[in-house]
Amino acid sequence: MAATKANTVKKPAASAKPAAKKTASPARRSASASTGSGLQEVCNSMAEQQAAALAQAAVWLDQASTGSELGSALQHNLDVWVAIRTMTESPSSALPSDTRGNLIQLADYVAASTLNSAKKALTKEQIRSFININLQISEGLLEGQANKMIREEAYRLWESAGRPTGDDQNFWFQAESTVRKLMGEGKKSARKS
Q1: Which of 48, 120, 160, 168 is most buried, with most CB under 10 Å away?
Q2: pLDDT digits (tens, 9 = 90+) for 58-105
């Protein structure tokens, strides 16, 4: 199953692309408004969008069965990784330097492997490695985003309580509960759409 050259590969059909970004559900809006910390905006962040794009690319790679389907899925995956590499290299990127380096190396691996597939067919193990990389990085992006949200919410709670000493774990647990609930509601509303 050799993929065609990257510049001649067709993209997946428009119906297979992820739905356009929708407004937050009433539950997400009310949760965000009740915390007052802008959690909704963080949920809709670039990290969440990148995580969704990686997961979708993994699904397309997993479902591809023919040469043309696989070629389209590989091209889409390459496009996602090129976008991630571009954002990672941006001077405005807030990622730690070691994370940036790792993402750039992964993007280079995906690009080199995909472009080489025009000469030599990828093995099932190579395709499976793309799928696993995408899913693991997607999960990492979401977990990192959750921790950032928890930190910000715990700080907001601590400040609103008058900055008491010795109660930091309670603020953290309360913030974690709020954020996990919000993220869970976001996943449920996304599944219903």
Answers
A1: 48
A2: 999 999 867 788 989 999 999 999 999 998 898 888 778 888 899 999
pLDDT of residue 107: 95
End-to-end CA distance of the chain: 34
Which regions in the chain score pLDDT beneath 70? 1-45, 65, 184-193
Sign of CA dihedral 72, 73, 74, 78: positive
Whole-number Å distance between alpha carbons of 139 and 124: 22
Query: What is the per-residue pLDDT for 25?
Result: 33
